Each structure stands twice: as structure tokens, then as C-alpha cells.
């Protein structure tokens, strides 16, 4: 071989690796800034058509600024509060006001202390700026550090504190979450490869993809082209680590296989890339198209998750097809030390997987009925999945001070007093609208808004602006509760019967609109994802029967996963419910990621079917790919399982749904159900392609 060719063979992969390092280095600082452009206010993600959004816009005409109430609350330990304790509480309120004012957090005048009618508690409401962002948890923390009042228990609660405690749950995304994800992936790779170097090369590839993809996401969010919140940031981080590792596992397995056949490491990599790029691109492309279906969501939080996930998958593929091959070529067989694959060495696909494939081939009907029957039984529990939403006060695992404060507040006050429902109605009908609202179950009282207007306002008559008046309805239930949402539904019906132009908004209405919009998204996006993935598989496999089979089995697996989650969430974890967004996001990722392993299996099965036919081909594919696909499934399940290290119920549920679903799909659907079904169907599984007529190449030997 000419010396120049030898130099180029070494130089090209070296330049590719250096290029990745040169790009990722400067971008590393930007990837850590993604949290700075995150928006975690659920109201900001509602569509303009939502009734609560319309009310928010109309409120601006009344010359009032939006605020986020934070409540300071003291409850007597012995059942009574004396005047000295009330006076001391007012001093604490003054200190709290000074802290908030210094931080620029106040948006209006705070209330004085308000004793409860039973004389057991006292509260004060501080209106905070709703746009404080990351500064809010720090200010709330300072308020919680105020000196205690002897004989009382102090709470900082209300919508502002609830949101602060929930937002604080995202603080571990850049550190604890990624540390857990990389740690568990490294452990699995060490067990799989039994090599100290190879896992580091694969982990390094995932790290490169993560740094670049999060930096690109930061620039897109900075320009306002995509919306990012803490939830989507955490999911995207996990996704890129899991996907890049999975694609790396597939490439490494094929490279090791070719190193036994080829003496040259360069030739081995060329063949490995030729055989791996199509399933990797097909897998990544399927996931990208699946998550981009979230663009059809009316919720900005879901809408933003689609693009950031697509960016992460794109760079995971790019890193697995460029950076990792470059590293593997540079290290050659030494990357696999101490179990170096030698030229001419017999390929060991794994006797265990050969036995499984042989068993499936002998009894395909039994395996098909057994695996499908088990999944159907689990899927029967799907209707019991509670997707009615989770109160913000219960969104943190183990509870929070603000959540406990809400319970105390509900014992001594009208729980919704600090965050009333807002009614905007035409001025002509406001008395009748007010009466209808006051007569609604769950409404403690209705008052017209009189302040903030021109001179002469505030005389007991409501302030009128452009023929509209504003009413405030105090609810008996906590504003973040499901009961408050039901009250808003009844309130909208009651005032709408009086005047169809009357609108109801406020915190509880925003939560209700979020739940309704998420439920609508589920109905629209689920069939869209299934359709898109079916079309992609049909183009990839050049068949119709196989794609329908694969999508059907993954859909069944997903239904079974949700059924198991319904049982686990209620009876094992005792969660207060689940959010429709969890179900939607979980479905999209389960179908898009679950189909990956079937793509890996069926592309190899198609390759083997050319010589051996569909029945023998799928069994050969199962024997050869069983180990690597199972390893990939374990890695992806473990990375999503890392979401459970964060204290947020919604992410714990999502981590369980995707992690368990991937394992179920890997160990049951891809190992038993699909091979058994393909073996029974035979060559017709490739209909209407040419392979439906049988092998198209002469059998070896």
C-alpha cells in the first residue's frame, strides 16, 4: 500500500476527531446556559384560543399588573394566637417586604396580616413579579429563613411558593441528572464490553453529542425559535445520552464482527459503516419524525419538546457515525482490550441467543400467543390510568413546605382567597353575572374590581373599561386542586348562561385549560405518530405487511406499559394521579424509541432473507443482534430511569413509563413476539416487495 494512502487512512479519522473536539470545546459553555432561556410558567404555554389566555389579555386593560401571590402563614401550636403573636407576625411581614423590595420582586402593595376567623392562624399576601424566573426560589428561601415566632409554625406558601418549590426540582438537571445517566451507562458498558477503554469511547461520543446539541438548542431558544422549559431540557439531555449510546453499540458490534473477517481495521470500519448507517439513520429519522409530531401540540411545552428532541437525536446520529468511527479506527483492535477480536477468529453470536432463536423457530405459535396474550392482559388496565392532572402542591416527591402550607391554609381560610378566579363580562350584565357566579358550588364570594382606575373609581361600582367589567370570585378550594378546576368548569357554564361573552380566567382556569389542551393533543398526536412511523417503515423495509406488524406490536407494548404504570403509580408509589402530558410524551417516546429495536432486528432480517428466506432470516437476525439490541435497551431504559433522581413526580412517572416500556419492548416484543410472528407469516411479511417471493440470492454452500 502506498505510503500516502497509509497516511491518509490515519489522518482523516484524526482530523474528524479533532474537529469534533474543536467544535465541542467552545460550545460547552453555551450548553450549560440552556436553563437561562427556559420558561417554566405553564400559563405562557397555553394557546391564544384558551379562555384563560383571553382573560389574561383583557386584564391588562384594567391597568393592573400580573402578580404571583406568595403567602406568609403562621399557625398556632396550641390552638390560639394572642395579640403579641399577631403583632410579631406583622413585624415578620415588614421584614419580608423589605427582602422582596430589595430583590425587586414586589408587584403591588402587600396585605396586612389577616387573622383567621377561628383565631388559630394569621396570614399576609405578598404580590410577587411573575417574571422573576430563577431568582424566585432564592427569595422564597430567604423568607423561610425569617426568625420563628414562638408557639407557632411558619409556612411560606401560595402560588408563588408552590411554583418555586416545583421549579427547584429542576436544579439537578445539569448536574445530578447527567451524573446519574452517565454513571449508569458507564456501568452497563463495562459489563457488556468487559473492556476499560471501549466504554469510555462510547461515553465520550454521547458527551460530544450532548454538548453540541444543547448548545444548538440554546441558540435556537435564545432567538425565540423554540420554547424550552426545565422538563424538556431534562428529557432532551437523557434522550441524547441514551440514543448516542444505542447507535454506538450497534456500530461497535458490527465493527467487532467485521474485525474478525477483515485483517485491515480500515476495511472493517468501511464495511461496518456501510451495514450500520442505514439502520442508524432509519432509527434516528423515525424518532425525529415521531417527536416532531409534537409540533402539532397546542401546548407550548410539548410544542417546544419536539424540536429540541429532534436536534438531540440528529447530533446523536452524527456523532455515532463520525466521531465514534474515527476513534475506533485510531485505536483499532486495542479499543477492545483485553478481548481483542482477531482476524480469522470465529464469530460468536452468543449460544444463548442461538438457543432462543432456535426455540422460537420450533414453537412460533406458542411464543406468539403467549407473549401477545400477556401484553393484552396488561393492556386491560390501561383505562384505569389516572391522567386527570396533579396539583402543583403535590408535584414534588415527599411533599414540600408550600404544599403543607396549602393544607393549613385550607383549614383556616378560604383556600382560594389569594388567587381568585377572574371573570371578564360586558358591563350591562355584570350584576346578573355576579349573582350567577356567587350561586355556583365551590364559590365563596364574588366582588367587583374597583381599583386601579381613573379618579372617581373605587366607590363600590366596578371599574368599566371598553364596556367590560372585571369580577373576582374567591373559590373554596386551593387554586391548584382538581376541585378548583371543576368549580371553574361550573362557573364558566353559569356565567355563560347569563352572557355568552363572559369569560373566566385565573390560576385555576389556566390549570384547567392546560389539562383540556393536553387531552386534545393526545387525541390528535397519537394517530399522527402511528401514521408517520408506519410510512417511514414502509419506505425503509420496502414492504407493507412488516411495517404494520411492527407498529401493531409496539402499540400493544405501549398499551401494556401504560396498564402496568396505572397499577404501579396507584398501588405502589401512591401518586396523586398523572398529567395528560406524561401520557402523551411517554407514548411518543415509547413508540418512536421502541420501534428502533425492531428496525435494528428487521433490517438485519431483511439482509439475511435475501439468502435464507424470511423464516430462517429472522432467526439468524435474532441470534446475531440479540446481545447488542438487549444491551441498547438496557442502556436506554437506565438513562430514562435516571429521571427518578429528580424529586418531581411528573419526571419520575415519565422515567418509569419509558424505561419499563423499552425493557418490555426489548425483552418481549423484539425477542419473542416479532420473530414468532415473522416466522409464521414467512416470506409474505415482505409483501409487496420482491422478497415476498422468497430468497433472491443463492444460498451459500
Automatic annotation (TrEMBL):
SUPFAM superfamilies: Multidrug efflux transporter AcrB transmembrane domain. Gene3D superfamilies: Multidrug efflux transporter AcrB transmembrane domain (1.20.1640.10). Residues 521-680 form the SSD domain. It holds the Pfam family MMPL. It is a multi-pass membrane protein. InterPro entries: MMPL_dom, Mycobact_MmpL, SSD. The chain crosses the membrane at residues 175-193, 200-221, 233-255, 276-296, 308-331, 367-385, 522-541, 548-569, 581-600, 621-642, 648-669. The keyword Transmembrane helix applies. Keywords: Cell membrane, Membrane, Transmembrane, Transmembrane helix. It is found in: Cell membrane. Its main location: membrane. Belongs to the resistance-nodulation-cell division (RND) (TC 2.A.6) family. MmpL subfamily. This is MMPL family transporter.
